[in-house]
Amino acid sequence: MTHPHASPTEFAPGLVLQGITPPLALKNYKLIAFDMDSTLINIECVDEIADMVGCKAEVAAITEAAMQGVITDFKDSLRRRVALLKGSTIADLERVYGERLRINPGARELVAACKAAGLKTLLVSGGFTFFAHRVRDELGIDFVRANMLEVRASTNCGELTGRLVDQAWGDICDGAEKRRTLLEVASLLGLESEQCIAMGDGANDLPMMHAAGLSVAYHAKPAVRAQAQVAINQGGLDRLLEVLR
Questions:
Q1: Average pLDDT, the chain
Q2: Catalytically active residues, by annotation
Q3: Which spans in the chain are helix H?
């Protein structure tokens, strides 16, 4: 991450750098990890599902507190939010995906540039596989780790139970799991952590950002912007390509 004595400088309007001297070579990196909600996509999926069942304000307040780092137990905060989604249906999730979820500006261009330069791509999300797998397919991302909503059969095509499903790697993808996943994928690819880029917007992205050779904040919370080597505060994700040639 950042050098303790590095002071942030505005490299270009809305693009703030600290502790690095551009241009850096994109081909020197081999893996880029992205957060999903509010980074690769425009929404917090959990909040929008909550909106479908009439409890958005309650859920969104917990999401915001977790993203700002005010709530430090992400797992507990996610369990609380998912519990409030009980009774919503797969049809509700389909509507969120179809009507509200949009790939953020510059995401396609950045992923394409990274792939062209030989980087592998990883999506690590505190959100849900229902959306993460579709975003993976839409952007052509190599690896995904996200949380799985428990669904039970019902008359209207499947209802959320308000719980998450344990997966082979663990129960919930939180900040620590994002970091572990980044380092695990890097290790399997034979890479050093310095060859990794991590990009996110919330407090639970900081552990993987600290572990990576280059940390990028995208339209992020103040605490995250302050600690990132690259902060994209205006414009699309592809503004990273102004720094990485």
A1: 96
A2: 35, 37
A3: 45-52, 56-68, 74-84, 90-95, 107-116, 129-139, 175-188, 206-211, 222-227
